[in-house]
Amino acid sequence: MLPLELLQVRAGEFLEGSCGNLCRVATPFQAEALATLHSLERISQLGMSRIILETDVSDLVRGLTSSDLDQIVDGSLLK
Questions:
Q1: 52-71 per-position pLDDT tens digit
Q2: Rg of the chain in Å (alpha carbons)
Q3: pLDDT at residue 28 is higher than 80
Q4: Which whole number is the average pLDDT over 14-30?
Q5: What's the total number of domains in the chain?
Q6: In a domain, 76, yes or no
Q7: DSSP bridge pairs for 8
Q8: What b/e string do you get for 24-63 counting C-beta neighbours within 10 Å, with b at 16 or more?
Q9: SS3 readout for the chain
Q10: By residue range, what is the domain housing residue 52?
Q11: Which of 6, 22, 26, 79 is the most exposed place for a label (fewest CB within 10 A)?
Q12: Distance, CA of 12 to CA of 20 (rounded, Å)
């Protein structure tokens, strides 16, 4: 899987981006969740505290904003 991360500042100003190869992921959901985690870790390194997280993966949004997916196999990635 090759997830893509993009960091933007203000109204669409590009800050940086990255692309990488995630080994040992079994599902696209795992790849998206891990890419999101890497993005959040980078945001933390840059000292940003107010962010808007945008994704096109509705299950990831649901998993991050509720406990609906806690019992699924990939639910542990969201804790």
A1: 777 787 877 787 777 776 66
A2: 13
A3: yes
A4: 79
A5: 1
A6: no
A7: 14
A8: ebeeebbbbbbbbeebeeebeeeeeeeeeeeeebebbeeb
A9: CCCEEEEEECCCEEEEEEECCCCCCCCHHHHHHHHHHHHHHHHHHCCCCCCCCCCCCHHHHHHHHCCCCCCCHHHHHHC
A10: 4-69
A11: 79
A12: 22
29 lies in some domain: yes
Please report where in the chains the tokens 């990255």 appear, as a residue: 18
Q: For residue 39, give Cα distances in angstroms to 9, 28, 72, 73.
A: 14, 16, 23, 22
Residue 78 banded pLDDT, cuts 50, 70, 90: low
pTM of the model: 0.68
In a domain, 40, yes or no: yes
The whole-angstrom separation of Cα 76 and Cα 5 is 21
Q: Across-strand partners of 26?
A: none
Whether 77 is covered by a domain: the verdict is no
